[in-house]
What does this fold into?
Amino acid sequence: MYQKNLVQFLKNKFCSPYKVGGKQVTRNVYAEKCDVARATLTRITNGDGYDVPISTIYKLCTFEDITVKDFFTEFSKWLKSREDV
It folds into this structure.
């Protein structure tokens, strides 16, 4: 269940919609800019409980200019809010 929640959080945070410089872009453009394979972004977008490598999370965070620590802090808060429902 943890993996599925992580994928959902990644999808909401980075892939829904894809944005570069505040402008909506295609998955292909986003993949190229953040150096993450398009197929990986597809797995995240499909939300199939994909086992996301930490290297992918690192690349997304680096591209989006947030620390991995802040990402996981935000994820923990998001996960807690879902448990409270």
